[in-house]
Each structure stands twice: as structure tokens, then as C-alpha cells.
Amino acid sequence: MAEEGEELEVEMEASAASGPIPFQLQFDKPFPFQIKIAEWNPEKDLLAMVTEDSKVLLHRFNWQRLWTISPGKCITALCWRPDGKAISLGLEDGSILLHDVENGKLLRSIKSHNVAVVCLNWEEDTQLMRGDNKYTYEDRTMRFFPPAPTIPRMPGLGSGDTGLMDDPVETYRDFSNSSHQRFNILCSGDKDGFICFSIFGIFPIGKINIHKLSVSSPFSDKRATYQLHNASIRKVALSKNLRQLVVLSLGELVEDLVTLKGKFIHRDGELVEPDKSSCGEDSSVGMHCLILNTSIFLNRKNELHQVALQASSIEDLIEVVRASLSVMSKQWSDTITSFHEKFDSLSSLIVDHGLESNSQDEFLSLLFGARTSPALHQFLVNSLGEVGLKRVSKAVDNAGKDLHVVVHEHLQPAVEIIGFRIGELRGLSRWRARYQTIGLDEKLIDNATEKAGMLHVQVERFSRVLATVLYQLQNFFNWVSKCIKILLSDPTDQIQPPNSELVVIFLKFLLDHDPVGQLLEADHTIDVDPDTKQRVEQLVMFGGFLDTKFLERTLANEFSQLEQCLKEAFLMPFTTISKKIHCEDLLPLYPIPSSPVASSLHAPTSISYYKDNRDSSPHDLVDYICFRIPDESMDLTNCIGIIRGSTNTSSSIKDISSPGAVLLCIPDGYHCMDLSLYKQREIVLLLNEAITTSESPGRSWMMMVQISDLSFMPLSRLGPANLWKLHELKASALDLHIENGKVRCIPHPVTTPLAVSASRGVACVFSSRRHALVFILDEDEDETSDME
């Protein structure tokens, strides 16, 4: 393999011996995997790659592998968090996984979609990146509380019970803290046309269906609107200021003149059935660019940041409470099961001896000095014995200690912080002018606040019940131990004297009942005597609350009600923000035939944002969309389209500026495998020779084109005639030449993907011989030396 790499370098040097060689080859490494996705870390010299069998590999720039993970499901998308500290994976089942970059541990598993996630994009607020701390929000929780509790590590809680895996203690806390430092949004699109938005990548804040979006054409006399039918998303890109979202989607563009009464259109004042020509059944199917207005993220980023910070932290703590209840339920259930396995054998012995009593009667008779029955004697001396009693007593004691630890170190702190954070949200919700706009409903938050208070009461109640039951059990065990020793004629002076009255209470109320286990059951109702119920109702209503039946609910049931209240409260911002995201423009790119070939469906695309020197504001960016046009589309062969300035924020029709576009013709005999927009308005192209043979497998070329040197032609916006506007630029298409510009020959064919890092100035290319080649794109010696 090393010799093969050396031969490759010699061939590459010889291919350009006539002049300086652009794109210095940093290294060439054999790579035994077929790669389908590759992305450079935006902040570090790390490259994440997804293999054909859906394993994720993380390599340093020197090709040192840091870790490998395998989710066990097909990975369909990948992107980095803007700070480079976490990576998100989209799966075929609609899940999104968030992994820690340091060790690959799973931080979150979120089910945002019902079908395969096909694209991911993660952006953060650029104002905070520039050091603008005017609107930073201080989380006051740290002033009053110690660090948030973690999920308890105890038997009985599987890794999949909480959506957190792989040691969910330190990584869980670190992810929660770091993700909240800057306001960022993760966008995900699926193959059914749904786009989800999540703040910090974990708090869902919106979801749209592009099939239900419509856009009006300002240049149509009919003021017609258009919609996409049967659309599937290919790529999404949120602008750096979070104001707009560019969506590339394959689908059918339909002029939406259909009435609400049926599938008929208005024509000359009459309702008539549309024909194929009016619906554009064939000509309107293709790749389209949708511009979605997401200015709500920009305009209300401070409010959204505060709500998401509190809400996502509450949801983290909810997982702690859920896991704590699960741990306690299993621990106590196992303990009580072992208790009954030992003591229920007395019932069988009573039946075998033909007695008409029960276990409670037998124990009470023994307590009150009656003669010990043969069944009870056999049970105490032979079936249970001192050893069996010690095992049961130790199991109960250990379970009690474990439950106390869970309550005091995990459950109770989590409930207290939940109450405080909901109180913070309650204060925000009363600022109606700012927070009603994003859907923070005061009434729903008030309900959640009351439920959080009731859950705290239930935790205190559970602690008291647990302590009482444990004391009763240990007193009962002491009495049974004393009885066994008396029957065996052993001394009893070392046994703590039991309380006979408590033994009676235990036998009557606790021997066959489990009040601790009942409090951990969600579907159990607790009986409360009428007098107590009446006094509680009076006190609750005197305090201004509405919940008068909390004593009848268990701890688990109270938690379920809090979860439901929080779900309703957090659903309001989700629904409100979703309604405020709308389509403000739509630009058809190119058509595809009714029976498209694979090249049409998977043509490479790239979206980036560059500073616009024409704009007075140094922070505003202009979008650039680059894509390969399939050969069977618009009578164009081997062309690449570039569109500049498709996004627009003007509200006046006369001020709407048309986007610019240019067509680039790939040299004859070459085929564009992949492309990527690069910094300083450049595009990197990866070309393969179109004709290859077994004797001559062909070569490939990496070419860089300066977009700033191209002449962009105005592109008219969506109108009723000539849907595919790029066809108008066919006559002015620019021919590219291998002999000119920055071009590097690679003596082997290459495969997708092309991974380009703008921050590091490098590109990783994968050859058909399963080699990974990393090139330095920038010729700046200082930058190259920094990379080394």
C-alpha cells in the first residue's frame, strides 16, 4: 500500500511537470472503506466519515483515527455543531443522534421524523459569535442550586430507557452546559418533505411540511400561488443570521388555483376541471429552490434562547426523575418479591396442616402468647430459619438505603430545580408583549407550576412513607428473629426488643399491602378518608390552588400529570413558531423526466453564504447555490448552475431584486462527480474522465473556479411563462478548460464525496482504488505550515 501511494505521487507530479502544481498533496493513505458521507469539523482538524455499512469514523488531519461508532441503523445524513464539539447523525428510521466529539459517546437520541432524515444543517447566531453580549441571558439557577443531578446508576435501568446512552453522567452534564452557551438551531429534512427545527439540537421549536407551503408570484396577472407536490427534500441551509432557510427539493410545481370545494379551477368566471397542460404534469417536475422566511428566529432569538434554555433543562431533569422512579420501582419490587417468596410459604403450610387460619392470624396468636401451631413452627424453624430471615432483612435494608440515596441525591434535587425553572418560565410568560409572540402561554405555565409543586409534596410524602415502612419491617424482623430463637431455645439478649404495638399494625396493614410500591404505580388510586379529604380541600383552596385531589394520586401518577402539563406548555411555542415560518419565494432550477435516472435524483449540490461587497452592512451575507444539471434536463449537457442572491428580504414588489445566475460547461469527455462551494467565492469541482476502459481506468481532475470572476446574468423570478429560467442562460454559458486555472490531475478515478474545509483550507478526495487523498487548497505558506 505504501508503494502504491508513492507511485500515485510520482504520477501526479509527472502529469503537471510543465508548471507549478496547485493543491499540494498533503498525504495519500490507503483506506479500506467505501465512504458515502464526509464532513470536516468547523473548528478542529477532524474529519468525520460514514462508511457504506453505516459506521462513523473520526480522523485527525494526520489520519490518526480517534474513534469508530456504529449506531446499528443506516446513517443517511451528518453535520457538525457550529462549535465542533458535537456531531449529529440522521438515521433511516427518522431518529437524530448527537455524539460527543471527544469520545464518540451518544449524548441524545431524538425522534423528530417518521421517515429517513436526508439532510442536516446546524447554524448559530453570528451576533454572539462576534462578541455582541448585549442580549446574553444569565441562568440564575446556578446561584441557588448545586449542579443538576444526574441519572442514577443502579440496576434495572437500561440505556434505552431515557434516550441517553454510553455513561450518561459526565457527558450528559457537559453537553447540556456547552450547548446552551450560544443560540443555535439544528434543521433536519426528511424524504417526505418535513423540516424540523431544534434549538441547541435538543429542544424542538418548529416543524413544517413543504407540501403545504405556497408562494405567490408577484409577476403573474392572476396573482396565482404555487405549491410543490410529491416533494422530497435534498438539502437545507439556514442563513448565518437565522433569517432565511434555503431548501432544495425534488417535486412537482403546481399552480394552485384549486378551490376549497373540489379539484376544479376558476377559468373565465366558471369552474372547470384542469387539464394536464394547466397542471404541468410533465414540465413542472424537477429540482426547485424554496426560500423560507425564518425571521422569527432572528427577531425573537433572545426570547427563544431563554425559553429553550429553561425548557431543555427541565426536559433533562424530567429524564432524571423518570429514571429515578424506574430505578426505585424495580429495586423495591425485587425486594418485596423476595420477601413474599419467603413468607408466603406459611400459607401453603397452613393448608397442608388442614388449618382454617391465615398467616396474619398465626402471627397474632404467637404475639399474644398462644401456643405455636405446627404450621407456624415448621415455617419459622425449617422454612424460614435464621439464615433466611437475615437474607430478607438485609435485602430490605439495602433496598431502603438505595432508595434513600436515589431520593435525596437524584429525585428530590431534580424536582426542586424543575420547580425553580418552571417558576422562571412563569415570570417570563407574564411579560406578554414579548413572550406571547412565541407561544409561551401564561395559563399553561401556571398549571405546570402547580403540578411541579404537587410533585415536590409527593416526593416528601414518599420519603415519609418509605421511612415508616422500613422501620415497621425491621421491627417485624426483630420480633420474628426473637421468636425463632425462643423456639430453638437460643438466648435472645442480643436482639433489640421489638415494639409489640407496631408488630400488630404491621400484621394488620402492611403484611399483605405495599404502600411504597403503590406510590410508584402510575395507575393506582389511594383511598383517603372523608375527613382528611375535606381538610385538604379547604387548605388547598385557601392557598389559591385548584388541585384538591393530590392525596389520591401516587408519586408516579403525579409525575405523569406534570409531564402532560409540560408537554402542553412546550407544544404552544412549537406550534406558534411553526405557523410563523412561511415560503416567501420559489425558484425552479431544472426539470427532470417523469422516469428519472439515478443521476437526476442524486446530482451534487452545495449551498454557502459569502459577504456581499456591494452591501453597506459588513455582516449581511449573500447565498450561493451550486448544482450539477442532469444531462437529460433542458437540452443542456454537462453543465453546472450557480445562483447568487436567491434570498430576498424586501417587502415591496418594486424593490425585489432578481437573483443572478451563470452556467458553466464542463469540458467534453469529463463528468462532474461532486462539487463544493469554498471560501472567498470559489467552487471546487471534482471531475472524472467520462470514457474509461479496463486497460485505462481513466483519470480525474480537481479544479477550482473563482466565482467572483464570473458574470452573473439576471434571472427573472417565478412567473406564468417559461418555468425553467436557467434555460434562458444557455447561450451565455461559460466553457471551462482543463488547461486553464487551478487544476490538479489525479491519475485515478475518484468517487463521492468531496469533503472541503473552508476553515482549514483542505480537501479530502477518495479514489476508486480506495485511497484517501488530502490536498492543501490554499497556497499561503503560513496557513499550510499551520496545518502541518
UniProtKB/TrEMBL annotation:
One of its GO terms (cellular component) is anaphase-promoting complex. Residues 39-124 form the Anaphase-promoting complex subunit 4-like WD40 domain. The keyword RNA-binding does not apply. InterPro entries: APC4 (IPR024789), Apc4-like_WD40_dom (IPR024977), APC4_long_dom (IPR024790), WD40/YVTN_repeat-like_dom_sf (IPR015943), WD40_repeat_dom_sf (IPR036322). Residues 288-489 form the Anaphase-promoting complex subunit 4 long domain. Gene3D superfamilies: YVTN repeat-like/Quinoprotein amine dehydrogenase (2.130.10.10). Keywords: Cell cycle, Cell division, Mitosis, Ubl conjugation pathway. One of its GO terms (biological process) is cell division. This is Anaphase-promoting complex subunit 4. It comes from Phoenix dactylifera.
